[in-house]
Amino acid sequence: MADAFDAFDYELLVELAETPGVPGYEDRIRELVRAELDPSVDRLRSDAMGNLVGTIEGGAEYDVVVAAHVDEIGFMVRHVDEEGFLELDALGGWDPRILRAQRVTVHTDDGDLPGVIGSVPPHTLSDEEREATPEIEDVRVDLGLDGGTIEERVDVGDLVTVTQRTERVGDFVTGASLDNRVSVLAMLEAARRLDRPDVNVHFAATAQEEVGLRGAAALGVDLDPDLVIALDTTVANDVPGFEAGEQITRLGDGAAIKLKDSSAITNHKLNRRIRRLAEARDIATQPEVLPAGGTDTGGLQRAGGATPAGAISVPTRYLHTPTECVHGEDLGAVIELLVATLDTETGDHDYTL
């Protein structure tokens, strides 16, 4: 039986997922993507927002943007107290409930420091404390060093990421930054496989998506594309406690074709073309109707005027936690569907509504 993980570069996925890059400070992950994208494209450039764009030139004067954000949710140090404990400001959408007892890395000018977000023993909590709703402002990072040492090594504005290994769990891959590094991998795989497209294809590794689609909105003005295809993760609540209609997507059921999220209603002519293409090529897909949460689809759809936009999503369990999970077959389907969509885009399809 074939292993679904043989369909893509799994080792690169691990490297992408474990390379830090919080919103506005995507330098390390951008340089990795730059190195991987460079051999596959004709031109490569970046901008002042931190977006990186690699272009494969086609024969037609028609521009397609494929966008996958490279930033991950994280934190910025907002205060260091006298004893050396760090207070944090969130960069992106964290649920404070899952932060107790996590390991983190503090990224300083002098190098990375390991730390923990502690959780006091239940033996010492009052009933009121046990029932209290945690807030990000309550989180403290313990670096295991005295206050004087930390004062010398850590500054307000240093970045913090959750530390978690990326590894296989059955048919899944799990890790802390699969949102959105699985889509970045899909984009890189498509750039490798795309051969002489009819149109210009711009592979965009966008910045600052997790704090409001900011990189994509700026990029949409600069590139002024004729067509946009965004790549991102989406919710898979196919776990106990959720009814079928609440699950959004299911792991193992294929690539998700986005119909809407809170930032965009996608172009239904484009959706129909992608769906028919998947059926013709026997690529497993499922529809995605996401009631909350935005993506670069919205940032690019209207940044430079009305642009036909669609999105292909990777179903993901436990989003925005350190144990995000993706099915290997779903990721393979996303890559295959993206390549097929780009291979068959001639610039002659009418997406006007």
From TrEMBL:
GO BP field: proteolysis
Binding site for Zn(2+) 1: H69, D179, D232
Binding site for Zn(2+) 2: D179, E210, H320
Signal sequence coordinates: none
GO molecular function per UniProt: aminopeptidase activity; metal ion binding
Active-site annotation: E209 (proton acceptor)
Residue ranges of the region described as Disordered: 110-131
Matching Gene3D superfamilies: Peptidase M42, domain 2 (2.40.30.40), Zn peptidases (3.40.630.10)
InterPro entries: Peptidase_M42, Peptidase_M42_aminopept, Peptidase_M42_dom2
Database matches in Pfam families: Peptidase_M42
Sorted UniProt keywords: Aminopeptidase, Hydrolase, Metal-binding, Protease
Cofactor needs: a divalent metal cation
Coiled coil regions in record: none
Co-factor: note: Binds 2 divalent metal cations per subunit.
Family affiliation: Belongs to the peptidase M42 family.
Name of the protein in question: M42 family metallopeptidase
Species this protein is from: Natronomonas aquatica
